[in-house]
Amino acid sequence: MTSGTEQTERSAPGAGRFAGRRIVVTGGSRGLGREVVRLLLAEGAQVATCARSAESLDGLRRSFGASSDLFTRSLDIADPELLEQFVKSAADTFGGLDGVVACAGGARGRGITEATHGDWAATWALNVGHFARLAASATPHLKDSGGGSIVVVSSISGWKPGPQAQYGASKAAQIHMVSSLARELGPHGIRVNAVSPGSMLIPGKRWDRMRQDDPVGYEQFTAEFPGGELVRPEEVADVIAFLLSEQARGVTGVNLPVDRGQNAPTPQGY
Question: 29, 154, 157, 199: which is the annotated catalytic residue?
């Protein structure tokens, strides 16, 4: 595991809902994370983000142009020490933190008889361990700023059963952590919430490939959604931004689904 490359660009914070706000987003180089970073930058925030691939972070920076106030570092979020160093560097660069988003995550392994101990441990580290270490390392900086907001991207798989069990269990743990941390950190002015997306239609990813390669199966899957359409990442990003903002100052300890009313989390259903 290596920390890879790090880059920083600074500019005067712009106008917008997050003008002057300093926010860390893990997993911000693609998919939902990229959309969150884009939205926060557009609304005036200073954003620090990380990903495993230095190349993907370089592409992120190029897409936002030289005026973006963006700090990046390549690292493995499952490495607690590297994650802590990233948070500290972001806070040092920006002069503090006002919010964090645990957007990175994932899963490893197949069904219960096939998944190894390593598969369970890796899935747990990606989702639960990463969220716990991010919250723990950011909390002192949020306290110094007079409070702030922590958001974790969980999943409807955290309470709607679907394959694989190690993924659903780790997402359920994130949701429980939100309730606990909201009580623990509330006295310090820190709000903690979860956003649970449904199946998102992201270009080049699983459901987009299914739409192209298996249109009949995709059409059947859309029946799990009352409106017949999958969730789009920008819809989830809007809700994350709301929870980070002062508009949500009365909201903490909440798991907020953004799933268009989805039933089963996958075409297999349960």
Answer: 154
Question: Class assignment of domain 6-201+234-258?
Answer: alpha beta
Q: How many CA within 13 A on the CB side of residue 36?
A: 34
Between helix 117-124 and helix 165-185 the angle, nearest 10°, is 30
Q: One of 29, 149, 171, 196 is an active-site residue; which one?
A: 171
Query: Of 29, 155, 196, 199, which one is the catalytic site residue?
Result: 155
- Of 167, 196, 199, 218, which residue is the catalytic one? 167
Write out pLDDT tens, residues 223-242: 999 999 999 999 999 999 99
Residue 270 appears among annotated catalytic residues = no
DSSP run (H or E) holding 25:
strand 22-26
Task: Determine whether 154 is an active site residue.
Answer: yes
Residue scoring higher pLDDT (269 or 76): 76
In the annotation, is 155 catalytic?
yes
Name the DSSP class of 262. -
Residue ranges per structural domain of the chain: 6-201+234-258
- Examine the residue annotation and report whether 53 is marked as an active-site residue of this protein: no
Identify the burial level of 228 via C-beta atoms within 10 angstroms of its C-beta, where 0-12 means exposed, 13-18 middle and 19 or more buried.
exposed
pLDDT in tens, 107-152: 999 999 999 999 999 999 999 999 999 999 999 999 999 999 999 9
pLDDT at 28: 96
Residue found under tokens 């706000």 = 21
Give which of 107, 207, 87 is closest to 157, Cα–Cα: 107
Q: CA nearest 44: which of 8, 67, 19, 12? A: 19
- pTM over cut 0.85: yes
Rg of the chain, C-alpha, whole Å? 18
Q: How confident is the model at residue 11 (pLDDT cuts 50, 70, 90)?
A: very low
> In Å, how far from its chain's centre is CA 191?
16
Contact 101, 35 (CB under 8 A): no
